[in-house]
Amino acid sequence: MNANLEVSREAFVEDLVANNFTTYFVATHPKYSQSNPAFRFTPSPVSVAVPYSWSYADARERLMSLSSLLTQEEAERRNINYVNPALKEFMPAAALPTLRGGIQLLLPDEKAYAHRHSANAFRLVLEAPDAGAYTTVEGSRLPMSKGDLILTPNWTWHDHHNEGNSHVIWYDGLDVLMAYWIGGVFYEEMKDVTGDEYQSVLRESESVTAAYGPGLVHRKQMYPDHIPVSDNTLIYYPYGKARQLLTDLADDGAGDPHEGVLVEYVNPLNNGPVFPSMGVSIRLIRGKSTVEAMHRTENVIFITMEGSVTFHLPDNQTFTTQPHDVTAIPSWVPYSITNTENEPAVLVSQTDRPVFKALGFYREAAV
Ligand code: GTQ
Ligand code: FE2
Questions:
Q1: Per-residue pLDDT reduced to its tens digit, 338-356
Q2: Which residues touch 97 (CB under 8 Å, ≥6 apart)?
Q3: pTM score of the predicted model
Q4: Where are the domains of the chain?
C-alpha cells in the first residue's frame, strides 16, 4: 500500500475514534480490534465471558465471614455473588452476560425485609434447618427445605425468614443483567409503599402446589416456541417431587446422550419456562456415564446438587465439582459432563435460552 494512504487511514481512524464514531474497518484494525473484539462478525458466537467454576467451600467461607462483619439489619440481603473474571470490569456482579448468581445466608432468628423488583429471581435451597426457614412471596409462605426451588417473579413482594434452629443458605439466580443493560430495572421496598417491613402470611405453600401440580416436564413436552410465555403463578417446586421424577425416569431408561435425564421446571399454564427470560431445569447423570458435548446458544449456570462431575471444555480445560459448586458456561462453548462415580449425580441449571428462543437466535450444532 502507498505509504501516504496508510498514514492517512491511520489518521482517519484516530480522528474517528477520538470523536466517538467508528467504522467496520476498525474491527480488523491491529490496534482497535483488540479493545473491541465483539464488534467483529464471527462465524459463530464468541462470548465476552469465559467459562468459570467456583467452589462452594470458597464461597461459603466468605459468606460466613461476611455475616460476622455485617449484621442482617445493615445488609438488605447478605450474600456473595459469583463474578465472571472476563466481565468484572464492565458488568455489575455478572456470572454470565445475562445471569447473576449468588448465595445468601440467614442465621436463626434473622429475616430479610420485603422488597420487589422487575428482575425475575429464583431461590434454590442448599442448606436448611429441619423446619422454620421460609420465603413469603405475595402472601404465600413457601418453606425453604434443601433442594426446593422458589420463584419470585417480576414485581412480586418477597421477604425471607429463618425461625429454625440452624442457618439457611440458598442460591439466588437472577436475570437482572439484561434488565440493567436495556434499562428495565425497577425496584421498591415494601416499607416505603405500605409502611410494613414484612408481608402478612395469607396462605401456605400447599395452596400453591395443590392448584398447579408439580410443574415438571420432560423438555420435549415443553411449549412450542411460537406460543408466548406469560406470568407464572406456580412459585414453589419442592425438591422431593423433582428428585423422585428423575429417579423414575432413570429407572425407565429415559435420557438423552447430550442432556442426561433432564426435567424442566415449567410454568404450568403453558408448559413454558419458569420465566419469560430464564429457565431452570434439573438433570440426573447416571453413574459411570458422560453427557456428550454440543454447541448451544445459551448462557448456562450449573449448580451441582448431588455427586461429583467433571466438565470437559475446549483447550483441555476441566472443572470438577462437588455439591453446591457453581459452574458458568457462556454461549456456544461446548462441554461434556462426566460422572465417574457409581452413584448418580444431580445438577440444576439456570439458563437464558428463552431469550435466544424468543428472539430467533437459538441454535444448536454438533461439535
Ligand atoms: O433475596 O431478594 O442475590 O433481591 C439479589 C437480589 C437476592 C433477594 C439477591 C435480591 C435478592
Ligand atoms: Fe429480591
A1: 999 999 999 999 999 999 9
A2: 47, 48, 49, 87, 91, 177, 299, 330, 331
A3: 0.92
A4: 1-41, 52-366
